[in-house]
Fold this protein.
Amino acid sequence: MHPTYPHLFQPLDLGFTTLKNRAIMGSMHTGLEEHKDDLKALAAYFAERARGGIGLMVTGGIAPNRQGWLAPFGAKLSARSEVARHRNVTSAVHAEDSKICMQILHAGRYGMHPMLVAPSPVRAHISPFRPWEMSGRLVKATINDFGTCAALAREAGYDGVEIMGSEGYLINQFIAPRTNKRTDDWGGSFENRIRFPLEIMRRVREKAGKDFIVIFRVSMLDLVEDGSSWEEVEQLALALEAAGASILNTGIGWHEARIPTIATMVPRGAYAWVTQRLMGKIHIPLITTNRINTPEKAEEILRDGFADMVSMARPLLADPHFMRKAQENRGNEINTCIACNQACLDHIFKRKDATCLVNPRACKENDPEAKPVVRENGPAKIAVVGAGPAGLSASTELAALGHEVHLFEAADQIGGQFNMAKRIPGKAEFQETLRYFGKMIEKNGVHLHLNTRVNADFLISQNFNEVVIATGVSPRTPLIEGIEHPKVVSYLDVLLNNRPVGKKVAVIGAGGIGFDVSIFLTDDSVPGETDKQLIEDYREEWGIDPNYQNRGGLMPPVKEHVPRELWLLQRSKGKVGDRLGKTTGWAHRLTLKNRGVRMWSEVHYEKIDDAGLHITVKGQPQVLDVDTIVVCAGQNSMRDLYEPLQAAGIPVHLIGGAKEAGELDAKRAIEEGWKLAMVAGVLARN
Ligand code: FAD
Ligand code: NAP
Ligand code: SF4
């Protein structure tokens, strides 16, 4: 029995096979499934995670036929000719003593192509296409395609399949009255609506055999109107068990739901209560999911009987060795997923391969450029100036390669701007990245010099072989008449220096920081709440009913007390915050809208005086009689050290904000630090 995580590391006997622990790497689309080659990148990606100790993994969604594609020419397994490439994946995983299931996903009306089909021709508001209604014949053929796909997956060496029955995809569309308007045998009564999933379950079992893992992902909480009722979820689960499912996984929320279900503002373990409602009612193992990102949370959920297994997808993208580190009681070395979605889901929406903000190696396991270059003339003495995300990443990676690294930081703590980000309600996870880097500094032997603002003369005098400038940015002060007025403060004053802010506030600039500051200033929560309280607050804010009285589990949101009146302003045209991340921007906008924040675009700033902020909005003059004006108008690079060092002939590198302030975010900062370390030897020779 594991001394710290006895439940997490308890094996699970499925009768015909045993899983070595209770964690599963949940299905997550990475884009590697779509590579038109022999799937070597996907194989390397899963092999790395298998080496990291996970018991079972599930691939991203693979369609059982062309109509089921998520996007044109998406991943599909419907013919024997497509089997061989998958064997590269399964054999790589088995060589590392782990198991892998292939997810079968039919997108239904969520398909981003004109051939999309659905039980009824009802368009999703998030899709540009109206689906074709499936004929009875096509329904039967599709059931068959699921069976064939499962049989081919078995032939390819997979240990099982997961049937995707949630998140609003085709199977879910049959189950819920919201999207199933049919009047034949496949629609109308509940019995008719669940005929499709049950026939699929039976056909898959029949075609793939008894000794094959079949996970069915049930939508246990649709979070949309006219979704399933709890009674229906329970009956479906029982029927799926009877139809031959080995394990049931929990699906939360349709993609079109207007409630964030995995973003960073969702508290850890916020949906385990849903799975718990089914515990004891069925006799096959239940997996719970969403925002479980530490071994402690996973253990707690299992210990308290919320589920038999936990699913973690993004946490294993962030750290492939999550499970091994936990097993070896090195939990503080885990690079924790901060649920930002910036490099995983946001990439997928742009049809780019996923990677991870905190782990830029993710999905590049097979990429020769992601391997370090050995420096020809041995380890170097390197100075890294600035311990923000860029400097932290560069210094810890360089030290891991054996260089003598000195990290200089002007402040009394590491983290740079992350020390502001972590104060934003719902962004406390950012502290985990600083904890991780702190541990890596110690482990890799970086010489850390806090409270040390360095200048060029000092750096030149210390005989460094190379210097890395990661000094970040300083806030931009816009040229507005009266900008020196005492009402005006910068986001630094608010988030770092705790400057008092009045009851009526205007925020200039609606980028990521303008939004974060607005959330910070309109939030009324008390710091130090327990996870249980955070979950209750979150359910109330977003209208999630723990008693499940209505279909879909929705209830009217509880109105929050908002401590300030706030205007969030931008000069450009269009939706305010249009450039925020695709998968999280809408939730930030909705949060502020629900708090009564006025978000205005096409604003021209005229002047600031005792009367307030004088603006014109779409040509109309106005004065905002506010107590405080917070400037969040972007930043300028801080790179004064660069030129003197270059002039002194020292090889010098710029990364993160110091390199370029425009389009800067932590994803770029961390990636540039890492990339520099990978090629440091080459740069030194040049
Ligand atoms: P910085 O973080 O600015 O770090 C530079 C460091 O250098 C500082 O610690 C500074 O003290 C030090 N330094 C400067 N000069 C010297 C010197 N001469 N000697 C020694 N030390 C020196 N990004 C995202 O991707 N996602 C988010 O959700 C997100 N949220 C944010 C929320 C807020 C409120 C803020 C303020 C920023 C947020 N960011 C976010 C932006 C992100 O934090 C920055 O892009 C990132 O920190 C830039 O990293 P950096 O290392 O280049 O610079
Ligand atoms: P930003 O995203 O570039 O936004 C700056 C804002 O200031 C824009 O709204 C800009 O838009 C306005 N602005 C620029 N110059 C101005 C001027 N001279 N006068 C008045 N307004 C001006 O930068 P940021 O908000 O400072 O964020 C910095 C980085 O951190 C960004 O890359 C951001 O992505 C990242 N970040 C991300 C998140 C996240 O949740 N993902 C959160 C925080 C920060 P207009 O010109 O239209 O007014
Ligand atoms: Fe987690 Fe962000 Fe990495 Fe995605 S990009 S895995 S959400 S840390």
